[in-house]
From TrEMBL, chains A, B:
Protein name per the record: Acetyl-CoA hydrolase
Family matches, as NCBIfam families: YgfH_subfam (TIGR03458)
The organism of origin for this protein: Acinetobacter rudis CIP 110305
GO biological process: acetate metabolic process; acetyl-CoA metabolic process
Lineage: Bacteria, Pseudomonadati, Pseudomonadota, Gammaproteobacteria, Moraxellales
Protein family according to the UniProt entry: Belongs to the acetyl-CoA hydrolase/transferase family.
GO molecular-function term, one example from the UniProt record: acetate CoA-transferase activity
Alphabetic keyword roster: Hydrolase
């Protein structure tokens, strides 16, 4: 049977069973912890069999993961009405709809915090862990696949474990994971990462072998993520940022390699990182969540010397290139549990520059990352809060308008706050960059309106700000009008009357 | 001259000068870092002389401190129009007015972050440090007074230092400070505090003696802070919390001594801590910012075994009692720089229970700590964000109504967000306690309305929530109505029509 050779501890061979049999171990009401982060490294056969099973059996689970799952697994489980509760992050269009309809209870969480919340009883205990593996070693270590996520935590916490051996994963990945699980309080020490490239853990997940209840073999590959080519706006955003970094280095305010970088996921972030390709920066490092194509391009061009993340979310061609040339990369990347990749202690110690995408921000620099018009969940806060709060410099990027100008990404007041003005240092749109460090709200507003707002909204924003200032306050607002742009959008599909 | 004996390094005696002379070292436009935190441990003679000087000299400074200053120093400097910019926190009525009028640029900051922001060039460098001292040792160590704040950081960063020897401070305080300054990145290691009582630094501030430009002697004492006696509502809040803690311990979710506690400043927090007095808890620990009377009462009654803070803000009688019986306390308290007392790394490692006061919160658990009706600054976020984000359990307390019922502290949508729903676990009013851990927004709303809202607003909140749910969303809102309670309050002084 294809895959048995990956179970190198032979005494485990008799635990191999079909996915359809393994899922019967998962009971209605169970709290299930699954591997998967950034659409990579999820178990596939078991969750998909679970969705099938739920179609004609009463089954509602609480699903905890690393972060988003590939292969539309959230969507398939949702279609089967198998999800009662979901955390800490998702990015599936179908599940999003059920969440916004109030049918699935979604607990949007900082990615770094979920494991501690379970460990210390703020969230229910994990009943079963479903973990994708590249292999199980002779010593019984579970080698993760394309992400580390919360897998090690779930294995430690769960009553029992289902391991899914992923035959599609190139076995050469063994060795790139850095698995470390913080001790429970009160005997917890510091996490000893001093440099982005420090290895502090083992290459796989330790497991009490008694807890392995089933092993399933999988042949469905990770999802590929093709990135949009940068467009005029994302290129402009990248350029503003590169210029800012160059000026900071020239002024002696940033080290020559900038310090470790974090980047959110998506096309804008990808464009920004591609911007480094044509810059003079070198010896770059990442200490981030998701390693995208651009990470490997920067390694290829000699610009980046090391990248730490929790997952690899790659296009098909990039994935093939990386696997075919893995020797070039294996000492330059590391995949860590999200408790490490997103850890406040480490982020603050290393002095990370965090670059994340905003849904919208307001003139005072508060950022909405999650809720369209203040109500409808898009994906979730993900790691943006972990990085933004503790970063040396916290940057948010977005295009100044959306939907062909019908929506301004710069608004009088955000309709939902995920990141407060205390935490947000730099805002960038294709229009320009607003450096808000050390500024009071009234000063921030002038910068944001001048540098970030689209010209077609600039005058309206300035009018709002000036009229609000007449009423006074540290953060001037007109409460009747503050959310009127969003209300108008809800009613007409446009933020202002044509 | 009274106080010379406290300057035990005699070579410094010739730097002693009157405050009026020392202030001439402070130039127009200077960035001045002053000691002081929680209204304790501020320099007094120099700032007050500076206010006098500014009355008839052109002088506008940027003032950075630990946190709030006693002796109305912010007010006096503000009256003299000596403040151009102010951070990271203040609590003076007069300065508040100037801030809200847009006359003083106020940069409200997380208390733990300011030093790093200066050290790594997100804020301007400190030109002059003005630091209150109990003594200067034979070795030239500056022994702080009633607070540690950012004093050690300012001394390290400043071009020159003015030391103010505070003759009113009992010299027995020497030894209770734990002064440790993190290294600048990229060579920063972990902060080695593993238990609340660990000492990791020295008892005083090291200084390059060349930088001491002046020493001033002061005879004005620290301000005393009398606490209101607990009233019916604050007693009820305390009782709800104690019951919650007891239930958590009984369920095995919290250790018997709860783990280290943090408490915000003020009468409600004081009442809550007094609630422990009549509880069965023992071996309590604090890892907090400000040690108030209640801390020492709990030590007196044997309930509390150790308290770490950044300042002591005491009533006159408590201060006298503590100083007269200092032997009982000296091994049980420690005053640390706010980079340690409020540090995310340590807060998360220790698993702190954080109890802070909200100005208002909304049905989904977002908290406003700073802005009245979304616009007017009250004091500032202080350390509430440092603790809330990283706490094991983050709690906010407030009375359910203010101004004799004209204002509901529970609103449809907060008019300003300082703490997002991701970070807020427990809300408490005199009406009851809402445990929001692991709940989605719609579930949170039901708990908050049922357990926390005042009966006179409960129906209106439920009506809002139900009508919002009809429109859907992860966090249902009616954008036209979301801030209407605050708008109504601005117009009529009441949140709803009589």
């Amino acid at each position: 049977m294809n895959g048995l050779d990956r179970i190198r501890l032979h005494s485990l061979h008799d635990k191999v069973m079909p996915a359809a049999q393994a899922v019967q171990l998962i009971k209605d009401g169970a709290v299930v912890g699954m591997s998967g982060f950034g659409g990579a490294g999820e178990a596939k056969s078991v969750p998909l069999a679970l969705a099938d099973y739920a179609k004609d059996h009463p089954l509602k689970i609480t699903l905890a993961t690393g972060a988003s799952l590939g292969n539309q697994i959230d969507g398939r489980l949702n279609e089967a009405h198998a999800l009662a509760r979901r955390y800490p992050y998702q990015a599936d269009p179908g599940l999003r709809q059920s969440i916004n309809a109030g049918e699935v209870m979604y607990i949007d969480q900082h990615l770094s915090e979920m494991a501690d919340n379970i460990r210390h009883h703020n969230l229910p205990q994990i009943n079963v862990a479903v973990i994708a593996a590249t292999a199980i070693t002779e010593d019984g270590l579970i080698i993760p696949t394309g992400s580390s996520g919360n897998s090690a935590n779930f294995v430690e916490m769960a009553d029992f474990v289902i391991v899914e051996i992923d035959n599609t994963i190139n076995p050469i990945l063994e060795g790139i994971h850095d698995i470390y699980v913080p001790k429970a309080r009160p005997n917890r020490g510091p996490i000893p990462i001093i440099q982005a490239s420090d290895r502090i853990g083992s290459i796989g997940i330790s497991v009490d072998l008694e807890k392995i209840a089933a092993i399933v073999l999988n042949d469905l590959p990770d999802t590929s993520f093709a990135m949009d080519e940068p467009d005029t706006e994302t290129l402009a955003i990248a350029q503003h940022l590169i210029q800012f970094f160059e000026a900071e280095v020239a002024a002696g305010r940033l080290p020559e390699n900038l310090g470790p970088l974090q980047s959110g996921v998506g096309s804008i972030a990808n464009a920004v990182f591609s911007g480094f390709e044509h810059s003079n920066f070198h010896d770059l490092e990442m200490y981030s969540e998701v390693l995208q194509d651009c990470t490997f391009q920067l390694i290829d061009s000699g610009k980046m010397k090391f990248a730490s993340g929790s997952s690899m979310t790659l296009s098909q061609s990039c994935a093939a290139h990386v696997m075919n040339n893995f020797d070039q990369y294996k000492d330059k990347i590391m995949l860590r549990p999200q408790e490490l990749s997103n850890n406040p202690e480490i982020i603050r110690r290393l002095g990370i520059i965090a670059i994340n995408t905003a849904l919208e921000f307001d003139i005072y620099g508060n950022v909405n990352s999650t809720h369209v018009a203040g109500t409808k969940m898009m994906n979730g806060i993900g790691g943006s809060g972990d990085f933004t709060r503790h970063a040396h410099i916290a940057i948010f990027v977005t295009k100044s308008v959306a939907k062909a100008g019908a929506i301004s990404s710069v608004v009088p007041m955000v309709s939902h706050t995920d990141h407060t003005d205390h935490d947000v240092d730099i805002l960038v749109t294709e229009q320009g960059l607003a450096d808000l460090r050390g500024l009071a709200p009234r000063e921030r507003a002038l910068k944001v309106i001048e540098h970030c707002a689209h010209p077609s909204y600039r005058e309206d924003l300035m009018s709002y700000f000036e009229r609000a200032c007449e009423k006074g306050g540290q953060t001037p607002h007109l409460l009747h009008e503050a959310l009127s742009w969003h209300a108008q959008f809800q009613e007409t599909g446009r933020m202002k009357a044509v």
